[in-house]
Structures are given as C-alpha cells and as structure tokens.
Design the sequence.
C-alpha cells in the first residue's frame, strides 16, 4: 500500500504535471488507481464510527462513539486533507466519462470526510483554524464537481477491491 501511495504523492506533489498528465497516469499506471483505492479506504475509516472503551475506577467501562478521524492527530488529518485537495485539483477538469470510477468515489468520500470534520470538530487553536480553512476550501470546490455521480454498484466494487 505504501509504495502505491508514495507513487501517487510524487505524481501529485513532485511533478509539475497538468490534469491531462494525471489522467494519462491514471489510465496507464495501475499503481495510481490502487493508491486512490487505498486513499478512499483511509477516508472511509475516517468517517466510520469507532467505539472506544474507557475504564473507570468502579470497574465500569463507558463506550464512547466517535468517528475514526476524531482519534487521529491534527497532523494526520492535515496530511489526508492535503492529499485529498491535490487529488481534487488534479482531477477538477475531468469529465465523468474521462475519470475512472475510483477518482469520483474518492472525491465523493473526501467530501463526506470534510463535511463530517466540519460538523464534529472543535476549533480551538491556529492549527485547527488553518485545517478548517483548508477543509472549507474543499467543500466549496465541490461546487464545480456537482455533476459527478455514480451508481451504487461502482462504490461497492471499490469497497470490495480494498
């Protein structure tokens, strides 16, 4: 998984490639599609409910339900958001017919992650406020992607592959 994500990171951050270059890489390099699948699953884990048990003095355990990202550090969240923003930027000019289903599903999952983060987070310091601004940018940027929609079987095939 790590090798695929590193390759996608290089494609997104280290090269001065255009959207058409990214599209070409997506079509010609299976590693890029695999990395997007892994990224989708990371986002999915971030919005999944996690039950965390806390021990108390009276031997009773309290179950606290949180979303996965609420157990992540700000640095981890910032990394996921930066990666997602780069994917959105690289794929913004794709039409639905050009994009592979994994791109659309990953972008849709990023939107769910961003909205969940905005709903659940408390913004108490500059780092949190910067992250809030970045995530707000993602949600606003989705206005341009409004027409992207897939059938449920596409989403299921992505989850099954992961």
Sequence:
């Amino acid at each position: 998984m790590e090798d695929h994500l590193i390759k996608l990171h290089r494609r997104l951050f280290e090269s001065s490639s255009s959207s058409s270059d990214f599209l070409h890489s997506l079509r010609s390099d299976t590693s890029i599609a695999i990395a997007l699948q892994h990224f989708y699953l990371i986002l999915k884990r971030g919005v999944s409910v996690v039950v965390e048990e806390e021990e108390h003095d009276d031997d009773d355990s309290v179950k606290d339900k949180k979303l996965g990202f609420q157990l992540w550090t700000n640095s981890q969240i910032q990394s996921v958001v930066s990666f997602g923003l780069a994917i959105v930027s690289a794929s913004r000019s794709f039409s639905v017919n050009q994009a592979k289903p994994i791109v659309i599903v990953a972008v849709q999952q990023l939107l769910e992650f961003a909205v969940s983060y905005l709903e659940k987070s408390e913004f108490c310091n500059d780092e949190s406020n910067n992250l809030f601004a970045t995530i707000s940018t993602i949600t606003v940027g989705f206005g341009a992607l409004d027409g992207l929609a897939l059938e449920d079987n596409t989403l299921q095939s992505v989850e099954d592959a992961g």
In short: The longest strand covers residues 49-55. The beta strands are 49-55, 61-67.
